[in-house]
Design brief:
Low-confidence stretches: 1-27, 483-494
Mean pLDDT: 90
CATH topology of the domain at 351-478: Immunoglobulin-like
CATH class of the domain at 351-478: Mainly Beta
Strand order of the largest sheet: 14-13-12-16-21-18-19
Radius of gyration: 26 Å
Largest sheet: 7 strands, mixed
Length: about 575
């Protein structure tokens, strides 16, 4: 009888916890907000590993985390500083780690090609070139991003610079400068995550802020800075303060705005970040709620009001309802008591400066959403960009659902949305933009600093279910002026490769030097990564070598010559002009 009573008691506890997970209540928040620890450089050691986390006391949920049980430490980077990251993978399978929004070389970007095998450590090192802003980091392994993020692998990045430091802004981390990572999860009756790989991305009816259910945070009666990150896999939020109280947006994905933008609502799609200031002066002893007014999302955004055909929402579904994200409990005071009138200067890129316009059509292929009619293929380069070029990307949505379009490597400026200038909320630097059905959004950006003929960057929908299913493409940034490339990997680390003339109209010489007799294969590839022809295959002696070929029958365009020496390939861009 005792065993039955214990079993019933345990089941009741789990049932009560499951009920607690439903975020349909408007009562006060009950749990103190978890503030992730900070980590400062120049060396950052991160370990991904399985763990358990008690989202509800007494119930251990299986999770993944960086240096802990859920999420990871907030990384503090100083702009223009050289940093070293040591990322160890102990999760039991391969993954990657992407520094979302950061301007780094493709081999440091952490995309799907930079796989960290289980039990190994990845060691990217780079100089931080970004301005002060809020970024985040998360896995990016193709077909597994949705799951790895859902299970807990994510964290915040704060970049600081002298311009931001000179402004009168709150920056006492966890005191008046609060990280707010917004995620949604579904729990079963045993308190475990319910992972659904389909649709826009795994989610649920429980809102977590920094991994905390129904959180509150104690802040002073003054100006408080909230660094908001939509870390959900597939839910859009409509941010606002209780009783339509105004707040001031001061930053977007890639940096501060020129002036604070006074708002009562701000929409955030997955992957987007924003910084806001909340003036809590004269509110000592009171509370202010940060909410998502999702009932006002009526244009088909996941998490908003259901539109079009489909099954009715489940009773526990919070989509299309308003719910509290975070309760601000005001006591004491803060050091910042006013909102600045000016922030930073943003140099505007002129449309006339663009070298080309690149169309991106969000459409369907069978039963999945894709880009430009093709699903993601890691062996195919979809686009080739030239280093130094300024480009306009025109993103048109031909599907029935909004999509948050994200590009790696660069920050962009929105030129127009459906033909109209961007709102003040979208007037700053961005790397994610939500594009609605039937709408075209054009942005302008410059590709500078990094070129690599082998490792691509990604562009994709940041609904992680769509990304994993194939709504992603990849692009190379190449240096058209490069004629020789140092190549490591051979015994003396001195393999050089050049092609001349480049551009070419007819005969072309490929020159390379070998320190030992080697097996060599030379091939021509098009811009999509498809092999066009084999130009040479056989043994070559040590010393200076040349292979001459004629571009007969090859149409004008950008190509790659690949020289494979003893199984080690190296590519060189070549332009054929008629």
């Amino acid at each position: 009888m005792l065993n039955i009573d214990l079993m019933l008691s345990h089941r009741f506890k789990l049932f009560a916890a499951a009920c607690l997970f439903l975020v349909t209540s408007t009562s006060g928040q009950t749990n103190k907000l978890f503030i992730p620890a900070t980590m400062e450089g120049p060396t950052f050691d991160l370990t991904m590993a399985p763990s358990t986390h008690e989202f509800t006391p007494g119930i251990a949920t299986s999770t993944l985390g960086f240096n802990g049980s859920f999420l990871g430490p907030t990384l503090i980077f100083e702009s223009q500083s050289a940093i070293q990251l040591n990322v160890s993978n102990q999760i039991g399978e391969a993954t990657t780690v992407h520094w979302h929004g950061m301007h780094v070389a493709p081999e440091n970007d952490g995309g799907p090609h930079t796989v960290i095998a289980d039990g190994t450590t990845w060691r990217p090192a780079f100089t931080v070139l970004d301005r002060a802003t809020t970024f985040w980091y998360h896995p990016h392994l193709h077909h597994k991003t949705n799951e790895h993020v859902y299970r807990g692998l994510a964290g915040l990045i704060i970049v600081r610079d002298p311009i931001e430091a000179a402004l009168s802004l709150p920056r006492a981390y966890g005191v008046d400068d609060i990280p707010v990572i917004i995620q949604d999860r579904q729990f079963d009756r045993d308190g475990q995550f319910v992972f659904n790989a389909g649709g826009v991305g795994a989610g649920g009816n429980t809102i977590l802020i920094n991994g905390t259910i129904e959180p509150f945070v104690e802040v002073g009666a003054g100006v408080v800075r909230l660094r908001l990150v939509n870390g959900s896999n597939g839910r859009v939020y409509h941010i606002g303060l209780q009783n339509n109280r105004t707040f001031f947006q001061i930053g977007s994905d890639g940096g501060l705005l020129e002036q604070p933008n006074e708002l009562t609502r701000l929409r955030m799609a997955p992957g987007e970040r924003t910084e806001i200031l909340v003036d809590l002066g004269n509110l000592d002893g009171q509370t202010v709620g940060l909410w998502s007014y999702s009932s006002e999302l009526v244009r088909g955004e996941p998490g908003g009001v259901a539109v079009g055909p489909g099954p009715p929402p489940r009773p526990e579904d919070i989509s299309g309802t308003d719910f509290q994200l975070l309760e601000l409990r005001v006591s004491g005071s803060t050091s910042v008591t006013s909102i600045p009138s000016q922030l930073v200067s943003i140099e505007r890129m002129e449309e006339a400066s663009a070298n080309r316009t690149r169309p991106m059509i969000l459409n369907r292929l069978g039963d999945i959403d894709v880009i430009n009619g093709v699903a993601m293929d890691l062996s195919v380069i979809n686009e080739v960009v030239e280093l130094g070029d300024t480009e306009i990307w025109s993103i048109s949505n031909a599907t029935g659902l909004p999509h948050p379009f994200h590009i790696h490597d660069v920050q962009f400026q929105i030129l127009d949305r459906a033909g109209s200038p961007p709102s003040a909320s979208e007037s700053g630097w961005k790397d994610v933009v939500l594009v609605y059905p039937g709408e075209t959004v054009r942005f302008i950006t410059k590709f500078e600093d990094f070129a690599d003929p082998d490792t691509p960057y990604m562009y994709h929908c940041h609904f992680l279910g769509h990304e994993d299913a194939g709504m992603m493409g990849q692009f190379l940034v190449i240096d058209p002026n490069a004629t020789a490339i140092e190549r490591g990997g051979l015994p003396d680390d001195s393999f050089t490769l050049s092609s001349y003339p480049n551009p070419t109209t007819d005969w072309t010489t490929i020159a390379y030097r070998l320190e030992q007799r080697s097996q060599v294969k030379i091939s021509l590839f098009d811009a999509l990564g498809r092999e066009i022809k084999t130009l040479f295959e056989g043994w070559r002696d040590a010393g200076e070598n040349e292979s001459i070929w004629k571009a007969q029958g090859v149409v004008s365009g950008s190509y790659f010559i690949q020289v494979e020496v003893n199984g080690i390939p190296r590519s060189l861009p070549v332009l054929i002009q008629r």
